[in-house]
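SEQUENCE-TO-STRUCTURE ENTRY
===========================

Subject: a protein chain together with a token-level encoding of how that chain folds.

Sequence line: the amino acid chain in single-letter code, read from start to end.

Question of interest: how does this chain fold, as expressed in backbone structure tokens?
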Amino acid sequence: MRFSLIPFLLLAIPLAEIAMFVIVGSQIGVFPTLALVLATAVAGSILLRIQGFGVVRRIEETMNAGGAPGRDLVHGVMILVAGVLLLTPGFITDTLGFLLFIPALRDAGWRFLRNRVVILGSAAGAGRPHEPAYRRDAGPQTIDLSSEDYQDAGNEESPWRDPDRK
């Protein structure tokens, strides 16, 4: 039943946007309406850049501390959706996009999704607060074998064998 709404929304949203363009254009004029649409696109791209980098920084800090950044990932997706909505021409999508840039509304969305999302893995370093999440092994990066450690068994059925070898 839910998916039967998608074709309706794909038709209803552009029609509503066109109606809003007609209403706003009749009130303030064509060129101010176009300028308003361009201004919201520019403001959306600026907000996307500022808040997007902030979310990426918080995700990195959470993972370095050994935690799972679920809340910040959901905020990041909401900010991405907000940016796309603001870059889409229209007043209804712009309104929804600007609403998604409000952290309190994103937190409400996170509270709604938190109990419906299952995290199947853990972040590297989770449960070990004194170890960094992304630590490089300090040991050698190359394994050096001596001639006694290596022997060529010559498996004839291997698909990686040398075809010229008999």
Summary: The two ends are 65 Å apart (CA to CA).
